[in-house]
Amino acid sequence: MSNGGTTRIRFAEEADAAVIARIHMASRSAAMPYLPPQQRSHEQVTGWVQDVLLKRCRTWVAVRDAEIIGYAALDGGRLEHLYLRPDVRRQGVGTLLLDEVRWHSPDGVCLRVFQQNTDARAFYESHGFTVLDTNDGDRNMENLPDMTLRWTRR
Question: Which residue intervals define the domain N-acetyltransferase in the entry (predicted)?
Fold first, then answer.
């Protein structure tokens, strides 16, 4: 695990789909152990990345030492995903991805986060996001209480 290299952000390409899928799956299970176990295979998640995510969202990857270590996906003004490889958390990678997303979002960014995801909530709140609403979970697949956060340019 080297964190010696510099991290750069670039647009995601279709060739990145399998790595994005691996990061998505590893990050969800590491950061959100309360979620039900992943039912989809790596191949199925890779297909979703290629056919849905990369077509619907502007997606960026964080690259260090030629390896993708995180990604962020923006659908209009909504940050749909920001996931990091579990071994690179708390090294500034999420902030780099979030800065890229915000730079491309002059009208602000909103996102949903599970209320239980205290690490993510603290991360977004430390970057100026405020709570817009809370919900009992009837608007997400996992049926878990969530909240909408919003950031606007000062």
Answer: 7-154
